[in-house]
Amino acid sequence: MAELSFSDVGKSFGSATVLRDIDATVAEGEFVALLGPSGCGKTTLLRLIAGFETPDRGEIRLGGQTVASAVSGRFVPPENRNVGIVFQSYALWPHMDVARNVAYPLEVRGVPRRERAQRVEEALALTGLSDFAGRAPAALSGGQRQRVALARCLVAEPRAVLLDEPLANLDLALRASMQDAFAAFHRRTGATMVYVTHDQTEALALADRVAVMEAGRIRQFAAPETLYDEPASAFVAGFVGDGAVLTCRPTGPLRADGVPIEVLGQQIVARGRDPHPTHVCLRPDDLRLTDGGAIRARVRACTYVGGRFRLTLDTGEADVVAFSRARARIGDTTGVALKRPWCFRDPNAGAVSPAMEALTQGALTHA
Ligand SMILES: Nc1ncnc2c1ncn2[C@@H]1O[C@H](COP(=O)(O)OP(=O)(O)OP(=O)(O)O)[C@@H](O)[C@H]1O
């Protein structure tokens, strides 16, 4: 397995730039998800790694070797990259049984029969398919077919495994059990994996780190808990996790315990590192429903989410989301208090005004 890195990679189709400024490194053995809305460039990035597309800018390296470079013009074709790919469509041979499907990449390479049999057996065991070796793909469930595709990819001992929405065709229950299967597969093989999805639950559940993409750019590349607790932009805050993203304004210098801000008419000390935050991310857990809460909000929606209720609350200024143990009636009014939400400066916010600079000067000296 191998490290994968991108430096300043860009890609256009005609006049449309679909990837820009891609600078990232996937460590050897790391499980990374590419997450973003439809059309943000996830599949194109995957195709660049596989060698189905060439970059217009920058360089891609795999295991210390440059596999594509717009600078030197070097390009290693897909068949020489030793990268495994699992598509959502499985792409199995219908006339071959499971074992033969898995053996196929080794047959093509001329691997001797005995070694082939042993490697196929191992791959089937790793994916929990040992009992299905003699079955035809048509006699398998969607999840089992996907595992055959995974075994076939694994048997070739690729330097990296690329997965393009591999669970998109499966029903919800199967998706959950396949997520467990992918996680187990990753633990046992230590494979470097890049997993494309537009399903944030899947990305956050599976990946060591998630690259959140928007309009051809990686907006934040971090561990799931960092994306959730400390989003770097309004886009990431809104795209990952539940809750609301509101504008805020700093009310004083950065302190050791956080940033004084005003949001929803309240002065609070939020979590944060930027002295000039523009936005605050209110996760449901950042809100406390209490009669004494200074913010008055009207219940707009109440849905049961297993063990508790998810409330959408209209504060008059913006809608926020909170959890409640008790069911609430639509139209009821409740008090809301803010805990310590995360605040940040959105990269699109532009320069800090001199007035704002003056207000927030003296960072830490007043802490
Ligand atoms: N071969 C191509 N020629 C022209 N445009 C393309 C080509 N391939 C992709 N695009 C465009 O590039 C953009 C990114 O596409 P891509 O498939 O990478 O997005 P995605 O994030 O994987 O989307 P989805 O989640 O819908 O699969 C889209 O606007 C798409 O229309």
Automatic annotation (TrEMBL):
Does this entry carry the keyword ATP-binding? yes
Q: Give the Pfam families listed for this entry.
A: ABC_tran, TOBE_2
Signal sequence region: none
User: SUPFAM superfamilies in the record, alphabetically?
Assistant: MOP-like (SSF50331), P-loop containing nucleoside triphosphate hydrolases (SSF52540)
ABC transporter domain boundaries: 4-240
User: SMART domains per the record?
Assistant: AAA
> What is this protein identified as?
Spermidine/putrescine ABC transporter ATP-binding protein
Species of provenance: Pacificitalea manganoxidans
